[in-house]
Amino acid sequence: MAQVGTAETGQGGAGRRDTDSGTRRACFRRVIHIGCRPGPWKRGLVLAALALLLGLVMLLHAQIPNGIGNLGSLVETFLPWFGLFVPVLLAGALWRRSASAVAALLLPVTVWLILFGGLLSDKSHLGGDLTLVSHNVSAGNADPAGTARDLIASGADMVALEELAQGDARRLVDPTELRARQATVTYEKVLGKTYPYHTMQGTVGLWSKLPLSDTQPLDIGGDPAMHTIRALRTTVTTDQGPLAVYVAHLGSVRVMPRGGFWTSQRNAGAHALAKAIAAEPNKRIVLLGDLNGAMDDRAFADITAQLRSAQDVAGGGFGFTWPAEFPMVRVDQILVRGVRPVRSWVLPATGSDHLPVAAGISW
Questions:
Q1: Are strands 340-346 and 254-256 parallel, antiparallel or unpaired?
Q2: How confident is the model at residue 34 (pLDDT cuts 50, 70, 90)?
Q3: Looking at the 3D structure of the chain, how many domains does it have?
Q4: Dihedral angle sign, alpha carbons of residues 350, 351, 354, 359
Q5: In 3D, which of 141, 223, 226, 224 has the Cα closest to residue 183?
Q6: pTM of the model
Q7: What share of the chain is helix, strand, coil (3-state, %, to 5)?
Q8: Which residue ranges does UniProt annotate as crossing the membrane (predicted)?
Q9: Domain range for residue 344?
Protein backbone atom coordinates (compact mmCIF):
# COMPACT_ATOMS: atom_id res chain seq x y z
CA MET A 1 0.00 0.00 0.00
CA ALA A 2 2.86 2.33 0.79
CA GLN A 3 4.42 1.78 -2.61
CA VAL A 4 1.19 2.47 -4.35
CA GLY A 5 0.75 5.67 -2.37
CA THR A 6 4.28 6.71 -3.23
CA ALA A 7 3.67 6.08 -6.90
CA GLU A 8 0.48 8.11 -6.84
CA THR A 9 2.23 10.92 -5.07
CA GLY A 10 4.98 10.93 -7.69
CA GLN A 11 2.48 11.03 -10.49
CA GLY A 12 0.67 13.90 -8.81
CA GLY A 13 3.91 15.88 -8.57
CA ALA A 14 4.67 15.25 -12.22
CA GLY A 15 1.18 16.46 -13.12
CA ARG A 16 1.66 19.64 -11.17
CA ARG A 17 5.01 20.23 -12.86
CA ASP A 18 3.44 19.72 -16.28
CA THR A 19 0.65 22.12 -15.38
CA ASP A 20 3.10 24.74 -14.15
CA SER A 21 5.20 24.32 -17.27
CA GLY A 22 2.13 24.75 -19.50
CA THR A 23 1.10 27.84 -17.60
CA ARG A 24 4.57 29.33 -17.98
CA ARG A 25 4.56 28.61 -21.73
CA ALA A 26 1.13 30.22 -22.12
CA CYS A 27 2.26 33.28 -20.20
CA PHE A 28 5.40 33.45 -22.31
CA ARG A 29 3.36 33.30 -25.54
CA ARG A 30 1.02 36.00 -24.22
CA VAL A 31 3.96 38.26 -23.42
CA ILE A 32 5.38 37.72 -26.89
CA HIS A 33 1.97 38.42 -28.48
CA ILE A 34 1.51 41.61 -26.50
CA GLY A 35 5.04 42.69 -27.23
CA CYS A 36 4.58 42.13 -30.98
CA ARG A 37 1.19 43.89 -31.15
CA PRO A 38 1.64 47.32 -32.84
CA GLY A 39 1.07 50.34 -30.65
CA PRO A 40 -1.44 53.12 -31.42
CA TRP A 41 1.16 55.05 -33.44
CA LYS A 42 1.96 52.02 -35.60
CA ARG A 43 -1.62 50.94 -36.26
CA GLY A 44 -3.60 52.27 -39.23
CA LEU A 45 -0.61 53.47 -41.25
CA VAL A 46 -2.59 53.05 -44.49
CA LEU A 47 -5.35 55.28 -43.10
CA ALA A 48 -2.73 57.83 -42.06
CA ALA A 49 -1.24 57.81 -45.56
CA LEU A 50 -4.69 58.31 -47.12
CA ALA A 51 -5.38 61.24 -44.77
CA LEU A 52 -2.10 62.89 -45.74
CA LEU A 53 -2.81 62.30 -49.43
CA LEU A 54 -6.26 63.89 -49.05
CA GLY A 55 -4.74 66.94 -47.40
CA LEU A 56 -2.07 67.30 -50.07
CA VAL A 57 -4.61 67.02 -52.90
CA MET A 58 -6.64 69.88 -51.42
CA LEU A 59 -3.56 71.93 -50.53
CA LEU A 60 -1.84 71.49 -53.90
CA HIS A 61 -4.91 71.29 -56.15
CA ALA A 62 -3.53 74.05 -58.37
CA GLN A 63 -0.52 71.85 -59.12
CA ILE A 64 -2.58 68.92 -60.39
CA PRO A 65 -1.98 68.94 -64.15
CA ASN A 66 -4.73 69.26 -66.70
CA GLY A 67 -2.75 67.33 -69.28
CA ILE A 68 -4.59 64.09 -68.52
CA GLY A 69 -8.33 64.54 -69.01
CA ASN A 70 -8.41 67.98 -67.36
CA LEU A 71 -8.00 66.24 -64.02
CA GLY A 72 -7.01 69.46 -62.25
CA SER A 73 -10.18 71.28 -63.28
CA LEU A 74 -12.31 68.29 -62.37
CA VAL A 75 -10.82 68.16 -58.86
CA GLU A 76 -11.28 71.91 -58.41
CA THR A 77 -14.92 71.73 -59.55
CA PHE A 78 -15.83 69.36 -56.73
CA LEU A 79 -13.14 70.45 -54.25
CA PRO A 80 -15.51 71.28 -51.36
CA TRP A 81 -16.86 67.73 -51.42
CA PHE A 82 -13.43 66.30 -50.62
CA GLY A 83 -14.18 67.22 -47.01
CA LEU A 84 -16.61 64.28 -46.87
CA PHE A 85 -13.65 61.90 -46.84
CA VAL A 86 -12.58 63.26 -43.43
CA PRO A 87 -15.38 61.65 -41.33
CA VAL A 88 -14.94 58.40 -43.26
CA LEU A 89 -11.22 58.29 -42.47
CA LEU A 90 -11.88 59.37 -38.89
CA ALA A 91 -14.29 56.47 -38.38
CA GLY A 92 -11.66 54.09 -39.71
CA ALA A 93 -9.01 55.60 -37.45
CA LEU A 94 -11.19 55.22 -34.36
CA TRP A 95 -12.07 51.64 -35.29
CA ARG A 96 -8.37 50.81 -35.66
CA ARG A 97 -7.51 52.86 -32.57
CA SER A 98 -4.83 54.54 -34.66
CA ALA A 99 -3.27 57.65 -33.14
CA SER A 100 -1.20 58.20 -36.29
CA ALA A 101 -4.29 58.29 -38.54
CA VAL A 102 -6.10 60.71 -36.22
CA ALA A 103 -3.05 62.99 -36.16
CA ALA A 104 -2.71 62.82 -39.96
CA LEU A 105 -6.31 63.99 -40.35
CA LEU A 106 -5.31 67.37 -38.92
CA LEU A 107 -3.83 68.24 -42.34
CA PRO A 108 -6.97 67.83 -44.50
CA VAL A 109 -9.18 69.37 -41.80
CA THR A 110 -6.94 72.43 -41.58
CA VAL A 111 -6.66 72.83 -45.36
CA TRP A 112 -10.42 72.46 -45.87
CA LEU A 113 -11.17 75.06 -43.21
CA ILE A 114 -8.68 77.48 -44.77
CA LEU A 115 -10.23 77.01 -48.21
CA PHE A 116 -13.90 76.91 -47.30
CA GLY A 117 -14.35 77.69 -43.63
CA GLY A 118 -15.26 81.28 -44.43
CA LEU A 119 -18.28 80.10 -46.42
CA LEU A 120 -19.85 78.45 -43.39
CA SER A 121 -20.85 81.77 -41.83
CA ASP A 122 -23.62 84.01 -43.14
CA LYS A 123 -22.08 87.28 -44.35
CA SER A 124 -25.26 88.83 -45.71
CA HIS A 125 -26.62 92.18 -44.60
CA LEU A 126 -29.89 94.00 -45.04
CA GLY A 127 -30.29 96.75 -47.57
CA GLY A 128 -28.77 97.26 -50.99
CA ASP A 129 -29.48 99.60 -53.86
CA LEU A 130 -30.19 97.01 -56.56
CA THR A 131 -31.30 93.37 -56.53
CA LEU A 132 -30.03 91.15 -59.33
CA VAL A 133 -31.25 87.70 -60.36
CA SER A 134 -29.78 85.23 -62.82
CA HIS A 135 -31.39 81.99 -63.95
CA ASN A 136 -30.73 79.29 -66.51
CA VAL A 137 -34.38 78.58 -67.26
CA SER A 138 -33.63 75.34 -69.16
CA ALA A 139 -34.86 74.67 -72.66
CA GLY A 140 -37.05 71.88 -71.31
CA ASN A 141 -38.81 74.00 -68.68
CA ALA A 142 -42.43 72.83 -68.59
CA ASP A 143 -43.73 75.89 -66.71
CA PRO A 144 -42.16 79.06 -68.15
CA ALA A 145 -45.00 81.28 -66.92
CA GLY A 146 -44.63 79.98 -63.36
CA THR A 147 -40.85 80.42 -63.55
CA ALA A 148 -41.27 84.03 -64.71
CA ARG A 149 -43.72 84.77 -61.89
CA ASP A 150 -41.33 83.27 -59.33
CA LEU A 151 -38.51 85.48 -60.56
CA ILE A 152 -40.72 88.57 -60.39
CA ALA A 153 -41.69 87.65 -56.82
CA SER A 154 -38.01 87.89 -55.82
CA GLY A 155 -38.29 91.67 -56.12
CA ALA A 156 -35.34 91.88 -58.49
CA ASP A 157 -34.55 95.09 -60.31
CA MET A 158 -32.86 93.11 -63.09
CA VAL A 159 -33.39 89.52 -64.24
CA ALA A 160 -30.93 87.75 -66.52
CA LEU A 161 -32.04 84.58 -68.29
CA GLU A 162 -29.94 81.94 -70.02
CA GLU A 163 -30.81 79.06 -72.33
CA LEU A 164 -33.49 80.92 -74.20
CA ALA A 165 -34.52 79.80 -77.68
CA GLN A 166 -33.80 81.90 -80.73
CA GLY A 167 -35.43 81.86 -84.13
CA ASP A 168 -38.88 82.33 -85.64
CA ALA A 169 -41.39 79.93 -84.08
CA ARG A 170 -43.32 79.83 -87.37
CA ARG A 171 -40.33 78.22 -89.10
CA LEU A 172 -39.48 75.68 -86.39
CA VAL A 173 -40.42 72.08 -87.09
CA ASP A 174 -38.75 70.17 -84.26
CA PRO A 175 -41.28 69.93 -81.34
CA THR A 176 -38.61 70.48 -78.69
CA GLU A 177 -37.28 73.61 -80.38
CA LEU A 178 -40.82 74.86 -80.93
CA ARG A 179 -41.71 74.45 -77.23
CA ALA A 180 -38.48 76.20 -76.22
CA ARG A 181 -39.26 79.13 -78.51
CA GLN A 182 -42.82 79.36 -77.21
CA ALA A 183 -41.42 79.37 -73.68
CA THR A 184 -39.18 82.29 -74.59
CA VAL A 185 -42.18 84.20 -75.89
CA THR A 186 -43.86 83.52 -72.54
CA TYR A 187 -40.89 84.94 -70.63
CA GLU A 188 -41.02 88.07 -72.76
CA LYS A 189 -44.73 88.50 -72.17
CA VAL A 190 -44.85 87.79 -68.41
CA LEU A 191 -41.63 89.58 -67.45
CA GLY A 192 -42.45 92.51 -69.71
CA LYS A 193 -45.34 93.49 -67.40
CA THR A 194 -42.87 94.26 -64.60
CA TYR A 195 -39.71 95.12 -66.49
CA PRO A 196 -40.25 97.76 -69.19
CA TYR A 197 -36.72 97.48 -70.55
CA HIS A 198 -35.30 94.28 -71.95
CA THR A 199 -32.91 92.91 -74.52
CA MET A 200 -32.34 89.46 -75.98
CA GLN A 201 -29.22 88.42 -77.82
CA GLY A 202 -29.27 84.83 -79.02
CA THR A 203 -29.86 82.53 -76.05
CA VAL A 204 -29.43 85.13 -73.29
CA GLY A 205 -31.54 88.07 -72.20
CA LEU A 206 -31.87 90.81 -69.60
CA TRP A 207 -35.07 92.34 -68.19
CA SER A 208 -34.69 95.56 -66.23
CA LYS A 209 -36.65 98.22 -64.38
CA LEU A 210 -33.93 100.69 -65.38
CA PRO A 211 -33.15 101.90 -68.92
CA LEU A 212 -30.70 99.94 -71.07
CA SER A 213 -28.41 101.31 -73.78
CA ASP A 214 -25.38 100.38 -75.89
CA THR A 215 -26.47 96.76 -76.00
CA GLN A 216 -24.34 94.42 -78.09
CA PRO A 217 -23.82 90.69 -78.50
CA LEU A 218 -20.52 89.18 -77.44
CA ASP A 219 -18.73 86.49 -79.40
CA ILE A 220 -17.61 83.96 -76.78
CA GLY A 221 -17.80 80.89 -78.99
CA GLY A 222 -20.58 78.33 -79.08
CA ASP A 223 -21.73 76.28 -82.01
CA PRO A 224 -20.14 77.85 -85.14
CA ALA A 225 -22.62 76.06 -87.43
CA MET A 226 -25.59 77.55 -85.57
CA HIS A 227 -24.04 81.00 -85.16
CA THR A 228 -25.36 80.98 -81.61
CA ILE A 229 -24.94 84.12 -79.50
CA ARG A 230 -24.36 83.15 -75.88
CA ALA A 231 -23.45 86.48 -74.26
CA LEU A 232 -24.36 90.16 -74.27
CA ARG A 233 -23.11 93.42 -72.85
CA THR A 234 -25.34 96.39 -72.03
CA THR A 235 -25.29 99.60 -70.02
CA VAL A 236 -27.85 100.16 -67.27
CA THR A 237 -28.63 103.76 -66.42
CA THR A 238 -28.83 104.31 -62.65
CA ASP A 239 -29.07 107.38 -60.45
CA GLN A 240 -25.45 106.72 -59.50
CA GLY A 241 -24.19 106.58 -63.06
CA PRO A 242 -23.78 103.84 -65.67
CA LEU A 243 -23.45 100.18 -64.75
CA ALA A 244 -22.00 97.73 -67.28
CA VAL A 245 -23.90 94.43 -67.21
CA TYR A 246 -22.74 91.24 -68.89
CA VAL A 247 -24.96 88.18 -69.29
CA ALA A 248 -23.29 84.95 -70.40
CA HIS A 249 -23.94 81.27 -70.86
CA LEU A 250 -20.63 79.49 -71.38
CA GLY A 251 -20.33 76.19 -73.19
CA SER A 252 -21.30 72.94 -71.52
CA VAL A 253 -18.83 70.55 -69.92
CA ARG A 254 -18.89 66.76 -70.01
CA VAL A 255 -17.21 63.91 -68.15
CA MET A 256 -16.29 61.52 -70.96
CA PRO A 257 -15.38 57.85 -70.35
CA ARG A 258 -12.27 58.17 -72.52
CA GLY A 259 -11.59 61.87 -72.87
CA GLY A 260 -11.95 62.80 -69.20
CA PHE A 261 -13.35 66.22 -68.25
CA TRP A 262 -14.23 67.89 -71.57
CA THR A 263 -14.19 71.70 -71.17
CA SER A 264 -12.74 73.12 -74.38
CA GLN A 265 -15.73 75.25 -75.47
CA ARG A 266 -16.32 76.54 -71.96
CA ASN A 267 -12.67 77.44 -71.48
CA ALA A 268 -12.56 79.29 -74.79
CA GLY A 269 -15.68 81.23 -73.79
CA ALA A 270 -14.23 82.08 -70.38
CA HIS A 271 -11.08 83.40 -72.04
CA ALA A 272 -13.08 85.56 -74.49
CA LEU A 273 -15.29 86.86 -71.68
CA ALA A 274 -12.26 87.76 -69.56
CA LYS A 275 -10.81 89.75 -72.47
CA ALA A 276 -14.06 91.68 -72.92
CA ILE A 277 -14.20 92.52 -69.21
CA ALA A 278 -10.57 93.61 -69.24
CA ALA A 279 -11.36 96.05 -72.05
CA GLU A 280 -14.48 97.42 -70.30
CA PRO A 281 -14.05 101.17 -69.65
CA ASN A 282 -16.80 101.33 -67.01
CA LYS A 283 -15.53 100.91 -63.46
CA ARG A 284 -18.79 99.33 -62.31
CA ILE A 285 -19.38 95.88 -63.77
CA VAL A 286 -21.79 93.03 -63.07
CA LEU A 287 -21.51 89.63 -64.70
CA LEU A 288 -24.59 87.39 -64.52
CA GLY A 289 -24.95 83.94 -65.96
CA ASP A 290 -24.44 80.23 -66.16
CA LEU A 291 -20.67 79.83 -66.45
CA ASN A 292 -20.80 76.05 -66.30
CA GLY A 293 -18.09 75.83 -63.68
CA ALA A 294 -17.10 76.56 -60.11
CA MET A 295 -15.01 79.64 -59.47
CA ASP A 296 -12.31 77.46 -57.91
CA ASP A 297 -11.64 76.05 -61.38
CA ARG A 298 -8.42 77.47 -62.81
CA ALA A 299 -10.21 78.04 -66.13
CA PHE A 300 -11.82 81.15 -64.58
CA ALA A 301 -8.63 82.64 -63.14
CA ASP A 302 -8.66 85.54 -65.64
CA ILE A 303 -12.25 86.38 -64.68
CA THR A 304 -11.89 86.03 -60.90
CA ALA A 305 -8.77 88.18 -61.04
CA GLN A 306 -11.03 91.06 -62.18
CA LEU A 307 -14.37 90.35 -60.49
CA ARG A 308 -15.52 89.22 -57.04
CA SER A 309 -18.11 86.58 -56.37
CA ALA A 310 -21.15 88.02 -54.59
CA GLN A 311 -21.64 84.64 -52.90
CA ASP A 312 -18.11 84.62 -51.49
CA VAL A 313 -18.39 88.19 -50.23
CA ALA A 314 -21.96 88.36 -48.95
CA GLY A 315 -23.48 84.88 -49.01
CA GLY A 316 -24.04 82.07 -46.57
CA GLY A 317 -22.87 78.56 -47.42
CA PHE A 318 -21.71 77.30 -50.79
CA GLY A 319 -24.79 78.37 -52.77
CA PHE A 320 -24.80 75.28 -55.00
CA THR A 321 -27.19 75.57 -57.95
CA TRP A 322 -26.91 72.44 -60.09
CA PRO A 323 -28.56 70.01 -60.43
CA ALA A 324 -31.68 71.49 -58.87
CA GLU A 325 -32.81 68.18 -57.34
CA PHE A 326 -29.54 67.76 -55.41
CA PRO A 327 -27.21 70.73 -55.99
CA MET A 328 -23.54 69.73 -55.99
CA VAL A 329 -21.77 72.68 -57.62
CA ARG A 330 -22.36 76.40 -58.09
CA VAL A 331 -22.25 76.99 -61.83
CA ASP A 332 -24.62 80.01 -61.84
CA GLN A 333 -22.76 83.13 -60.83
CA ILE A 334 -23.11 86.80 -59.99
CA LEU A 335 -19.71 88.52 -60.12
CA VAL A 336 -19.08 92.22 -59.58
CA ARG A 337 -16.52 95.02 -59.69
CA GLY A 338 -16.87 98.59 -58.47
CA VAL A 339 -19.97 97.85 -56.38
CA ARG A 340 -20.36 96.20 -52.97
CA PRO A 341 -22.31 92.97 -52.59
CA VAL A 342 -24.43 93.12 -49.43
CA ARG A 343 -26.37 89.88 -49.83
CA SER A 344 -26.27 86.75 -51.96
CA TRP A 345 -28.67 83.81 -51.90
CA VAL A 346 -30.19 80.97 -53.91
CA LEU A 347 -33.86 81.16 -54.85
CA PRO A 348 -36.28 78.20 -54.64
CA ALA A 349 -36.49 75.71 -57.48
CA THR A 350 -38.50 76.46 -60.61
CA GLY A 351 -39.22 74.23 -63.59
CA SER A 352 -35.54 74.34 -64.54
CA ASP A 353 -32.73 71.93 -63.73
CA HIS A 354 -30.81 74.95 -62.32
CA LEU A 355 -31.64 77.00 -59.24
CA PRO A 356 -31.86 80.80 -59.66
CA VAL A 357 -29.30 82.98 -57.88
CA ALA A 358 -29.83 86.48 -56.48
CA ALA A 359 -27.65 89.22 -55.03
CA GLY A 360 -28.16 92.66 -53.54
CA ILE A 361 -25.52 95.26 -54.37
CA SER A 362 -24.81 98.69 -52.94
CA TRP A 363 -22.99 101.63 -54.42
A1: unpaired
A2: very low
A3: 2
A4: negative
A5: 141
A6: 0.86
A7: 45, 25, 35
A8: 45-66, 78-95, 102-120
A9: 124-362
